[in-house]
Model the fold of this input.
Amino acid sequence: MKNGDNSAGRVLGRFFRPVPPGLRAQFKAQRIKTNVNRMFALSIYIIVIQIVLNIINILRPSEGGDAGNIGMYVTLSLVTLSVGVVYMLLLLQAKKGRIQSEGAKRFLINSLLYIYIGIQMVFCTLNVIATGGVNSYIIAILILCMFPVIRPVQSITSTLVCFAYLLVAMYVTRGISSAWDSIMLTDTWTNLIIITGITMCISVFIYNIYVDNFMRSMELEKSNAELVGANEKLAEANEKLEIAANTDQMTGVLNRRAFSRDYEEIWNSSLLKKARIATAIFDIDFFKAYNDKFGHLEGDKCLQMIAGSLRDSFRRQYDIVSRFGGEEFLVVFDASEQDAYALVNNARQHVEDLHIPHAKKTVSPYVTVSAGVCVMVPSEAVDNDIALRMADDALYESKRGGRNKITMKIYEKEAEKEEKSGS
Done:
């Protein structure tokens, strides 16, 4: 039985495109939205056609017994026109999102469709009685099969119901109309069957195309989502790569390459603003002795702790903390002479307050740093190498002065002046 069911499913799948269970809710919502737009267009069509037909019926001269028929046509047309106007207004609200319920939208779609088809079949009955014509029937099945996107079972069933109604109407009115005999005795019967079959095929074709387009849009949406996800992962990987390329892996602060880039930006910014900029070099006192006593692993931990302490001391937006090489760290920040000295001295004290035991206790029982600072206002006549050289010279003066000290130099155009020195 399962093989038979699968075979039947495959055969039906060739004619009626299936929608995967996981996408049915989304497909249903999209089909409702499409049908709201299509039925809104149908309501406009109804209004325009009925206005034109009413004008024609009113202006057409009547003869004797035709007056009653024309009056009936006009009345039915006015009812149809009213239906078109009411549904146009309701569907407009649905298009604008003022009607949110999917059930209400489905009701509007189906009720307009079947009310209009019902009216057309009433017109068809009148035409069968009066002239034997079936034009209204053809209009009804064309509207049914071409305007809304409905499931093939619904469209085929509705079309067959309309066809059965037409046959019953012609048979019941055979006593007062020649339609039955004319259809049975001519090719009209064959043509009606062909037109009915073609419209059902068109309905299935339209539905299948709609399903195919929906599935393609879902595949495209999935591909776009995957592409967006891949781009986000790539951006994240690039960001990590950028961070890794600019960060000293041992300490987590900027490396020499990133420092050179950021230093150039801050220098140029200070040049435009004519603002003072401070360049400080910190060096761990007797770090070789620390490594020899405790080993390189402990030495790495010591570097990391001191880098973290310097980051905590210089955490403003434009402060730069980088590893200059070995046990040296370079810090750049904007400050006046007094503030620069106070900030650097505060950073020096924070390092000593870490209380990292030192092997060489000449200066302090704990690990300490010496620092050299240069404060200057950048100008076109000099570059930032001067600030680095002056900070390096100041550092060596701090070392020669006993370490765990700060020496600050101020560059003033043509002269270099040592301003402060001390711990």
Observations:
- Residues 302 and 356 are 8 Å apart (CA to CA).
- The radius of gyration is 44 Å.
- The beta strands are 277-284, 320-325, 328-333, 369-376, 406-412, 415-422.
